[in-house]
């Protein structure tokens, strides 16, 4: 009798397991997983926005001017550190994204133009980075507004395409909302996101 009950319970348990095994633990509509293990086919846009103001020529260690006379020749400038970092990034990830380069003052004539957009090869961007020459002020706010509105946003081609602006700077923005005539020293007024004599960007005019 005991064996009969045990056998019956075993059969019932087996039947129950068989019944439950017919149903998936996860609903079928949730079993379709999408795994992304590589860079999307649409490359994202990355705008390198580099501070090329005069202070970037100072020492990256103590912020003082670098010269042979004062013994600071072994100190890398802030710009040298930025160039080295950008060189490594472009060398390692150059083929993964679309790149563009803008500086605050275009002192080294390194900027990619609005017409070039993000079509300049990473190898060319790396060459242009090397030619950046720190000089003049820090009009970060106005330059950011301009490059986003005239270069970044117009070059978004797909809904899934993301755009990033990577700013490398050593200080607070200035000269963004006042226009100065460098020849007379006269304040031409502001706020204004345009360019006066103290602005470059001739290819925008």
Automatic annotation (TrEMBL):
SUPFAM superfamilies: vWA-like. InterPro entries: vWFA_dom_sf. Keywords: Signal. Residues 1-18 form the signal peptide. It comes from the Bacteria. The keyword Transferase does not apply. This is VWA domain-containing protein. It comes from Neisseria macacae ATCC 33926. The lineage of its organism: Bacteria, Pseudomonadati, Pseudomonadota, Betaproteobacteria, Neisseriales.
């Amino acid at each position: 009798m005991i064996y009969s009950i045990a056998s019956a319970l075993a059969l019932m348990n087996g039947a129950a397991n068989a019944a439950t095994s017919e149903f998936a633990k996860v609903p079928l509509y949730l079993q379709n997983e999408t795994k992304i293990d590589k860079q999307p086919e649409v490359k994202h846009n990355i705008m390198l926005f580099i501070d090329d103001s005069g202070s970037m020529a100072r020492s990256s260690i103590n912020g003082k001017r670098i010269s042979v006379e004062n013994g600071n020749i072994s100190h890398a400038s802030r710009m040298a550190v930025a160039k080295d970092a950008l060189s490594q990034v472009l060398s390692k990830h150059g083929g993964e994204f679309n790149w563009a380069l803008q500086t605050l003052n275009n002192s080294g004539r390194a900027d990619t133009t609005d017409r070039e957009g993000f079509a300049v090869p990473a190898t060319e961007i790396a060459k242009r980075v090397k030619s950046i020459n720190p000089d003049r002020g820090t009009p970060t706010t106005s330059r950011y507004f301009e490059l986003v509105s005239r270069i970044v946003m117009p070059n978004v081609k797909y809904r899934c395409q993301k755009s990033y602006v990577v700013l490398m700077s050593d200080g607070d923005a200035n000269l963004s909302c006042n226009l100065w005539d460098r020849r007379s020293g006269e304040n031409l007024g502001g706020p204004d996101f345009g360019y006066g004599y103290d602005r470059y960007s001739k290819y925008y005019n």
